[in-house]
Design goal:
The chain is of the alpha/beta class. The chain has 15 helices and 15 strands.
């Protein structure tokens, strides 16, 4: 970084990245870490303090003389609105700048109501949560949707279960009320981001698989979310399942993994469930043998596809999330059984296949993380401080 760049707010964003771990540091420590001149570090720290992004954190232990002051990242400098909108539910949360949830609400909501009704209700809930937390404005909004999203525009792209949403300007609708930025992505991508940030920040290669009404995956490679050329990487539910050519899928094809191993497909094979995923989950929790066996068999079908993913992507952690996984340990057992048997020993030698630890919060944590990665990036911080 050239000295000519070190004027005003320029370069302060890089300094803030060092501080986002929350550890208090002195000016002298920052000089040592960055190799910059003390006057440069001092100017950047003062600017970040003035904007509230850093805050005093007491005094360091003195080695003689007056103890030096320390500073730390201030996550209360702003709030993010995060929403995880599923096929039949929505979870909306307000988080601080460290993605800690300050207030949250979940309610039943059908995605088939259309974008205007769903987004307006999300905004209404968001306004109520902001009032609860004592905030009026947000620094950014993140939204997860249950279908393919063109991340660069935030517009859904031919989503099979979202009538009326194709090409809809979701960011424009929300920004008209809250201002920007508004970032939108597929819900499973955001679950992957949320689980990675909250539980596995040191893992560079992770595969998150959601198993519920549908099946999808989010891919973390090199520590970052992999979206693919058109943003549809990880569309696991529409990979052909072996021996399933007769099973019709809602996407229009036949034999998709989702058509044979997602919640509705399993419930249809358990007479006592009456086709209801909720009742299927209740049966599993109650110890019903038929339901447990069908869920484990579905886990094996998912494991067949995941075995290929493990060989192709070589993740060190595979995380299974979604309502079925939370309810049914037998599904995890079925997945493990096949993946460990069919993948190459080198790929599975240290592979962990685990259930999600973020639970129902994975989506909103990921939505908040997506926004924070954007607004707290060095480029964005420098642009904001230069105004």
């Amino acid at each position: 970084m050239g000295e000519s760049m070190i004027t005003g707010g320029a370069g302060a964003g890089v300094l803030l990245q060092l501080m986002r771990d929350g550890r208090p540091r002195t000016r002298a420590e920052l000089v040592q870490l960055t190799g910059l001149a003390r006057s440069t570090v001092g100017a950047r720290v003062d600017l970040l303090l003035h904007k509230g992004l850093l805050a005093p954190a007491g005094e360091a232990v003195s080695t003689g003389g007056r103890p030096p002051a320390t500073f730390a990242f201030n996550p209360s400098a702003g709030v993010v609105l995060a929403a995880d909108i599923g096929a039949t539910h929505a979870t909306v949360a307000v988080t601080d700048l460290a993605a800690q949830v300050l207030a949250q609400r979940e309610e039943t909501m059908s995605i088939t109501l259309g974008p205007r009704a769903v987004l307006d209700r999300m905004l209404q809930i968001g306004a109520e949560l902001l009032a609860e937390t004592g905030h009026r404005t947000v620094v950014g909004t993140g939204i997860g949707l249950p279908g393919p999203v063109e991340h660069s525009t935030g517009k859904p792209n031919n989503p099979p279960i979202m009538p009326g949403w194709d090409g809809y300007d979701v960011p424009g609708h929300v920004a008209a009320v809250l201002g920007g930025p508004v970032l939108v992505d597929n819900d499973v991508n955001l679950m992957a981001l949320g689980e990675h940030a909250a539980v596995y920040p040191g893992v560079d290669h992770l595969l998150f698989v959601k198993i519920a009404t549908g099946i999808g995956s989010g891919i973390i490679t090199g520590g970052s979310l992999h979206r693919g050329a058109q943003g549809v990487a990880g569309d696991l539910g529409h990979v052909q399942a072996m021996g399933s050519q007769a099973d019709a899928c809602r996407c229009g094809n036949v034999g998709c993994l989702e058509a044979v191993a997602a919640g509705p497909a399993i419930a249809a094979r358990v007479p006592a469930a009456g086709g209801s995923v909720t009742e299927l989950i209740n049966l599993v929790r109650a110890g019903d043998v038929v339901a447990a066996n069908e869920v484990r068999a579905a886990g094996r079908r998912i494991g067949e596809v995941l075995a290929a993913c493990v060989s192709l992507l070589n993740p060190s952690v595979v995380v299974l999330g979604g309502q079925l996984v939370i309810a049914a340990e037998s599904l995890l057992a079925g997945v493990r059984e096949v993946v460990y048997a069919r993948s190459l020993p080198l790929a599975t030698g240290s592979l962990q296949i685990l259930t999600a630890r973020t639970g129902a919060q994975a989506g909103v944590l990921g939505a908040a993380t997506m926004v924070l990665q954007h607004i707290l990036s060095p480029t964005e911080i420098d642009a904001r401080l230069a105004v």
